[in-house]
Amino acid sequence: MRKFILFLTGVLILATSFATSNVIKPKLNAAEIFLPVGKTGQKISLLELTQIKVKDFQKLTGRKMDVFDKASFTLAQKKASKMINRDGTINNKMVNKFIKKRDGETGFHIGGFALGFLLGGIGILIAYLINDDYKSNRVKWAWIGAGVALVIWLLLFLLVLDAVNHIE
């Protein structure tokens, strides 16, 4: 009995130690985010884009800019440079959220699909109540899962109804 209690205590301590570990997500670096420029498919980093001169940008794109384009490019550069910290990380929440969505927060979400497919309307409500970075994708797939479940139930109902009509 003493060994069992000692074993149980060890397992509980081990289980709680796993729960307290933190995972730190690395911040997005502006030098690692590349944007397509021009028709040739060349890419430039966001950090370089905030520091490039208008003439160099014209050479890169292969297109001559008029006065209004140059002014709007300079204003956009200043606005983009305000979003980048001195260490090169991005401090704008909207840009971070957009980049994260491009990095895998879209596509099939098994949890959302299962909520909608197995629980129907309650699953959709649960998907709306969970707040994290994947909420919009989860809600979308919960609706899709509920729709698939509804179609399957309607097909089963029609098959049973057809079978009953053939019996009579």
**SS elements, strand count:** 2
What string gives the helices and strands in order? HEEHHHHHHH
Domain module tally: 2
- Helical coverage, percent range: 55-70%
Description:
The mean pLDDT is 82. This protein has two domains: 30-102, no CATH class; 110-167, no CATH class. By secondary structure, the chain is mostly helical. The chain has eight helices and two strands, in the order αββααααααα. The chain has a two-stranded antiparallel sheet.
Task: Outline the secondary-structure elements.
Layout: H1 2-19, E1 34-37, E2 42-45, H2 46-51, H3 54-61, H4 67-82, H5 93-102, H6 110-119, H7 121-129, H8 135-167
Antiparallel strand pairs: 1-2
Helix pairs in contact: 6-7, 6-8, 7-8
Provide keyphrases for this structure.
about 170 residues, mainly alpha, 2 domains, two-stranded antiparallel ribbon, 8 helices, 2 strands, about 5% strand
Please give a quick description of this structure.
With 168 residues, this protein is mainly α. Helix content is 65%, strand content 5%. Strand 1 (34-37) and strand 2 form a beta hairpin.
